[in-house]
Design brief:
58 residues; mainly alpha; 0% strand
């Protein structure tokens, strides 16, 4: 099993997503409800990955 360090993963993520968005001078508006929704989504994604890893190792 190959493991990547967090810096490599973050760098690859930025390379994939940075090119798909156009540069904007607008400041994004802070929306607490959207922020909470995104955090929950990420948390559930991490749980799914953890369960997948447990299934692979079992």
């Amino acid at each position: 099993m190959n493991t990547l360090d967090i810096n490599t993963i973050a760098f690859q993520y930025l390379l994939r997503n940075n090119n798909s968005e156009e540069a904007s001078t607008e400041t994004p508006k802070y929306d607490p409800a959207q922020q909470i929704k995104m955090q929950k989504s990420l948390l559930f994604h991490l749980y799914d990955l953890e369960e997948e890893a447990e299934d692979i190792l079992a």
